[in-house]
Amino acid sequence: MILHSTFLFIGTTEVMFILFIVVMVFGADKVPDIAKGMGKGMRTLRDATNDLKSEITKTTEKSGINTTEYTKSITEDIQKVKDEVEDTVGSIKRKM
Length: 96
Fold this sequence. Notes:
The chain is mainly alpha-helical and 96 residues long.
């Protein structure tokens, strides 16, 4: 069995092909500038996400909402749904 590394459901061959196309379209001298711009964009997105998370945390603390209970409840519900799906899929697999 051959295992290929994947990134966002894209295999190594596809990533190499995309990089080849990028170099062909933009040129080797522009690729570092493009990567730098993408890095800055990702950093901005991460900072905005962290700000949003901290704001939500502050608001829930001020309101007295216990997020641990909600998280535990949601996790239990998700596990129940997973178990039901596994039971259904298991019976379908056995019939085939």
